[in-house]
Amino acid sequence: MSVVENIKALGLSIPDVAPPAANYTPFIEHNGLLFISGQIPMIGGKTDYMGKVGDALTIEQGQMAARDCALNILGAVNRVIEGDWDRVIRCIKLGGFVNCHPDFNDHPKVINGASDLMVAALGDRGVHTRFAVGAPSLPLGVAVEVEALFALK
After folding, report:
1. Residue 59 covered by a domain
2. Which residues pair with 106 in a beta bridge?
3. Structural domain includes residue 22
4. What is the band of 85 on the pLDDT scale with cuts at 50, 70, 90?
């Protein structure tokens, strides 16, 4: 199945890229690498994932927020590749930030929401390196932010 079919099989769709909220670009393609700026869990102009994971939100809700970040990452990739998913060699790295209290330590479980979606969408091309860290706050008060690096043909 194609990436788009894999996403549809999960009951999801690849969103359009949101315009930047500040002075940055959502992505840069350079020498076969595609750098995706941090994406927040905002789909269609709204998010259900505000606040700190482990406090206002459960780990499972944090995972859903991370999944929505990954959907936005795929939206940015889709814009760059103009729908030609054969151009994607692989997802090289995801970097995840979790809005949480200093004593929260389940960051990897939360960011698995993004990692799991990347593998479900891209198969073996979605297996990546990763970091997952806690943050005292994130833009707009969202629960999670995820950035990415891809290799392209």
Report:
1. yes
2. none
3. no
4. very high
